[in-house]
């Protein structure tokens, strides 16, 4: 008996060693050979939250690149929206492109790209923004500019690397708009100094406009695709001119915060403009 | 007592650095430092052997838990702790017995050659065992070898740097 105790005292560390080695081999073998994930799940439930908070900290430093990739993904999604296409009956056209089940042909009408605002004013009487893309990146005059929230403005001038954007917050800005659900077409203009509010003009007095109604682009201008969000109706007044309403629109775009903008190109704009040039009265 | 607290603190700091930083470092695709080994290297040699094994196992387990390699580091660390007294013994040789009462594997007590060989031997043992256990195959052996050598080189380098930066002022031979 004494011998045995003596033996254990001497060999105790060898036993501990053996037990620990076998334990680690069992842990290793379970996950490798037997696909038994109970242990690793238990460990993960403790370790996971710690790693998550750690990754959250690291992630904050990578938000910039991730935002860029999300912007690119957004563009891919926007390019596939229905209002980007011109749908035509196949009988009149023999365009070589994919047709849907109704034998109609869809032709891409608008294309997207993006840019970042590097300079802007919002509190002046004539506001403008400058974005970091220009002729070299395929930016042209009269391209539509959108913010993540909605319509932002129109490109008015392009140099080789930069472009000037005239936001809605400019007295010369005019955007054809459609107010729903009344389905009345009008024009969004801006006057005054409030960067959040514009006016919707040329809505007949008989139309039923309620506060909170949405204002979208109507696609008449060849600049903006149809159905882009401009803002919501904030106030309705009967104007001096008795036949039209004066409607205040709360703009969707937060000009004070805007950084990433999307630019829309109408691929058929030269063609449409050449027709417009033939209008007798213009 | 002071010594115990210092050791525990060292373990905590090195483990946090290991799982938060070193584990994500991968120089050239195959050099990943195992910094936490330093805490094991600096453990007092006179601790009971079974306690040393347990500490090694626990340390390896924590590292495994964060690296999703359950068992790998635990095995390698336990084995390394088992080999440590023998490495120290063979490095001390027969003529160095006068340091027996302050036999600590730290700079100041030991010279650079001793520390270097001690770190290199134990690190390469740890890396060989852990990398082989992790890959579990002899296929593509050249790459496995490259990983083992790369990990060992970077680990030894980093550990030696840290050891000599935080040089403990031990009065040598006096």
Detailed description of the structure:
The complex is a heterodimer of chains A (282) and B (174). Chain A is of the alpha+beta class and 282 residues long. Chain A has helices spanning 2-32, 38-61, 63-79, 269-276, and strands spanning 85-89, 104-108, 110-120, 129-131, 144-146, 151-158, 163-167, 175-180, 184-189, 197-204, 214-217, 229-238, 244-251, 260-266. Chain A contains four helices and 14 strands. In chain A, strands 3-4-7-6-5-14 form a six-stranded antiparallel barrel. By secondary structure, chain B is mainly α. The radius of gyration of chain B is 16 Å and the shape is globular. Chain B contains six helices and no strands. Chain B has one domain (2-165). Chain B starts with a helix and ends in a 9-residue tail after the last helix. In chain B, helix 4 (72-92) runs antiparallel to helix 5 (112-135) and helix 5 runs antiparallel to helix 6. The chains are: A alpha+beta (282), B mainly alpha (174). The interface between A and B is medium-sized, with 25 and 24 residues.
List strands and helices in order, with pairings:
The complex is a heterodimer of chains A (282) and B (174).
Chain A (H helix, E strand, L loop, with lengths): L1 H31 L5 H24 L1 H17 L5 E5 L14 E5 L1 E11 L8 E3 L12 E3 L4 E8 L4 E5 L7 E6 L3 E6 L7 E8 L9 E4 L11 E10 L5 E8 L8 E7 L2 H8 L6
Antiparallel strand pairs in A: 1-2, 3-4, 3-14, 4-7, 5-6, 5-14, 6-7, 8-9, 8-11, 9-10, 10-13, 11-12, 12-13
Chain B lengths: L1 H19 L16 H5 L7 H19 L4 H21 L19 H24 L5 H25 L9
Short description:
Chain A is of the alpha+beta class. Helices cover 28% and strands 32% of the residues of chain A. Chain A has a domain at 60-81 and 114-282: Beta Barrel (Thrombin, subunit H).
Give the uncertain stretches of chain B in residue-range form.
none
Order of helices and strands of chain A: HHHEEEEEEEEEEEEEEH
Proportion in helices of chain A: 25-40%
Note the overall shape of chain B.
Answer: globular
Please count the beta strands of chain A (DSSP E, at least 2 residues each): 14
Number of domains of chain B: 1
Structural class of chain A: alpha+beta
Biggest chain contact: A-B, 25 and 24 residues
Q: Count every helix of chain B, treating DSSP H or I runs of 4 or more residues as helices.
A: 6
The span between the termini of chain B is 24 Å
- Evaluate the radius of gyration of chain A: 31 Å
Please state the average pLDDT score of chain B: 82
What proportion of the residues of chain A form beta strands (DSSP E)? 25-35%
Number of DSSP-assigned strands of chain B: 0
- Structural class determined from secondary elements of chain B: mainly alpha
């Amino acid at each position: 008996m004494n011998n045995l105790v003596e033996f254990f005292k001497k060999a105790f560390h060898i036993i501990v060693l053996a037990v620990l080695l076998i334990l680690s081999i069992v842990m290793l073998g379970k996950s490798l050979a037997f696909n038994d994930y109970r242990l690793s799940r238990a460990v993960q439930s403790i370790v996971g939250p710690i790693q998550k908070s750690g990754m959250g900290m690291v992630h904050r430093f990578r938000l910039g690149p991730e935002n860029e990739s999300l912007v690119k993904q957004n563009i891919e999604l926007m390019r596939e929206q229905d209002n980007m296409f011109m749908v035509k009956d196949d009988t009149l056209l023999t365009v070589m492109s994919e047709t849907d089940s109704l034998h109609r042909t869809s032709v891409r009408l608008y294309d997207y790209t993006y840019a970042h605002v590097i300079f802007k004013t919002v509190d002046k009487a004539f506001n403008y923004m400058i974005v970091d893309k220009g002729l070299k990146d395929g930016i042209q005059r009269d391209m539509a500019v959108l913010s993540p929230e909605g319509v932002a403005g129109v490109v008015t001038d392009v140099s080789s690397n930069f472009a000037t954007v005239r936001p809605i917050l400019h007295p010369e800005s005019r955007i054809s708009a459609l107010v729903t659900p009344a389905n009345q077409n009008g024009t969004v203009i801006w006057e005054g100094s409030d960067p959040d509010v514009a006016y919707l003009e040329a809505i007949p007095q008989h139309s039923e406009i309620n506060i909170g109604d949405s204002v979208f682009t109507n696609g008449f201008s060849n600049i903006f695709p149809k159905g882009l969000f401009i803002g919501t109706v904030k106030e309705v007044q009967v104007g001096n001119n008795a036949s039209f309403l004066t409607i205040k629109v709360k703009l969707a775009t937060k000009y004070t915060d805007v950084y990433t903008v999307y630019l829309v190109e109408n691929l058929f704009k030269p063609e449409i403009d050449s027709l417009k040039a033939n209008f007798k009265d213009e | 007592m002071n010594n115990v607290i210092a050791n525990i603190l060292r373990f905590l700091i090195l483990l946090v650095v290991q799982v938060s930083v070193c584990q994500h470092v991968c120089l050239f695709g195959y050099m990943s430092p195992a910094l936490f080994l330093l805490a094991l290297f600096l453990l007092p040699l006179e601790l009971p052997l079974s306690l040393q094994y347990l500490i090694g196992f626990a340390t390896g387990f924590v590292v495994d838990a964060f690296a999703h390699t359950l068992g790998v580091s635990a095995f390698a660390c336990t084995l390394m702790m088992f080999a440590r007294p023998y490495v120290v013994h063979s490095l001390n040789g027969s003529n160095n017995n006068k340091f027996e009462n302050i036999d600590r594997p730290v700079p100041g007590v030991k010279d650079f050659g001793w520390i270097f060989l001690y770190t290199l031997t134990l690190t390469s043992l740890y890396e060989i065992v852990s990398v082989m256990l992790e890959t579990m195959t002899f296929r593509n052996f050249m790459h496995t070898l490259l990983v083992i050598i790369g990990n060992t080189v970077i680990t030894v380098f980093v550990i030696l740097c840290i050891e000599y930066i935080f040089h403990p002022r031990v009065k040598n031979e006096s």
